[in-house]
Write a structure and sequence with these properties.
Elements lengths: L1 E6 L2 E8 L2 E8 L2 H17 L11 H15 L2 H21 L11 H13 L1 E2 L17 E2 L3 H20 L27 H9 L3 H13 L3 H5 L6 E2 L4 E4 L12 E4 L2 H17 L17 H13 L8 H13 L4 H8 L4 H4 L7 H9 L5
Antiparallel strand pairs: 1-2, 2-3, 4-5, 6-7, 7-8
Length: 367
């Protein structure tokens, strides 16, 4: 239904459709406001105003969206979206049980989702912990702003697909502003002593895996999908290459490897043939519910080594990049080695090389 009303000198059209209220500022003319109301009523009758008549449940939309991702995107993308949608369903079930249909999603509803995520107990990777479960080590209260912003972006992506599928006319979150990311955890690379302590506390299998992370800066998925054919021992390089069932996040690249790592990988290859590891360099490929095995091994080993703050494999990648910069390697070279798609990502390490940058300025001819 639609109606007009006046506030001060200005006329407004007030529209309520499928439980969602919209107000539109028209102007100072009552006649124009009446015409605008009639036009909106016609659009509502045709299903052309806001949400279409072919409304579906949010759960049904989520299923459709995840099916689309499973077909068109890499598995890690689908896994990430599924985690977001699980959070959204849990929020609606707990705090907004009356919000069932796609047409009921609004900026106000998702603002409530943000608050819900800030109040939830989460593990270090942002996963929500069930209220009746024991709180594991390294957990904290509330997802960080960056995590929540990424989750809202995921919900926006689903609503954008709903537009493509002709389920809605416009994204109700298109004007939603992201949270200010002032709670970002600073990068804390391992010290040289901590690297040694981690390796010393590792099992033989995990020692080489952690050693490879520290000396190449590879991503977790890159290491898991590394084949023996990807290592050129003659040229001493690791090639991050596309596979039939996996593609690297930012395209193919090569990573030089030092003499010590090269020798360790050769010895590992010799032993691997004896125990039939197959084509994969490391027995770490994702399978079933074991996709967090490397992280669990890292946390267990770090605890044994007394490195309490080490809970993420990505810290080993940060350590690789940090030491390159501190040793004077230029940022564009670090970008190539890390496989960053943008130099802006690499710039997070710039503060680690103040002397190096100062030396560059000192080389200017017009001092």
């Amino acid at each position: 239904m639609a109606r007009i009303y006046k506030r001060g000198r200005i006329w407004y059209v007030d529209v309520t459709q499928n439980g969602r209220r919209t107000r539109k500022k028209v102007g100072t003319s009552k006649r124009i406001a009446e015409l605008a109301m009639k036009e909106i009523e016609v659009k509502i009758a045709k299903g052309e105003f806001g949400f279409l008549q072919s409304d579906i449940t949010i759960v049904k939309l989520i299923e459709k969206f995840l099916d689309y991702n499973q077909t068109n995107n890499r598995p890690t993308t689908t896994t990430r979206y599924k985690a977001i949608m699980d959070h959204l369903i849990e929020y609606l079930k707990q705090e907004r049980p009356n919000v069932i249909l796609l047409s009921q999603i609004s900026e106000e509803v998702i603002t409530g989702y943000k608050s819900f995520r800030k109040r939830s107990w989460v593990s270090p990777n942002g996963m929500r912990i069930e209220p009746d479960k024991d709180i594991p080590d390294h957990s904290r209260k509330g997802a960080r702003a960056r995590t929540i912003n990424l989750e809202v972006d995921g919900i926006k992506a689903m609503l954008n697909m709903a537009i493509r599928w002709n389920l809605i006319k416009a994204n109700p979150l298109r004007l939603m502003k992201p949270l200010k990311e002032d709670d970002k955890k600073p990068i804390k690379p391992l010290t040289e002593d901590e690297c040694k302590e981690l390796l010393d506390a590792s099992t033989p299998e995990m020692r080489l895996i952690f050693y490879t992370f520290l000396n190449t800066g590879m991503r977790k998925a890159e290491l898991e999908n590394l084949l023996w054919s990807d290592i050129d021992f003659r040229r001493k390089v690791i090639q991050i290459k596309n596979k039939e069932d996996w593609k690297p996040k930012s395209g193919e690249r090569e990573i030089p490897i030092g003499l010590n790592l090269c020798a360790a990988l050769k010895e590992h290859k010799r032993k691997s043939k004896e125990v039939s590891f197959g084509d994969y360099v490391f027995k770490a490929k994702n399978s079933g519910h074991s996709h967090n095995r490397l992280r669990r091994e890292l946390i267990k080993t770090a605890k044994k080594a007394g490195i309490d703050h080490l809970t993420k494999l990505h810290t080993l990648r940060h350590t690789f990049a940090s030491y390159l910069v501190m040793e004077g390697v230029d940022l564009p070279s670090v970008k190539e080695l890390m496989g960053h798609s943008s130099i802006q990502t690499t710039m997070i390490y710039a503060h680690l090389a103040p002397d190096h940058l100062a030396d560059a300025v000192d080389k200017l001819p017009f001092r």
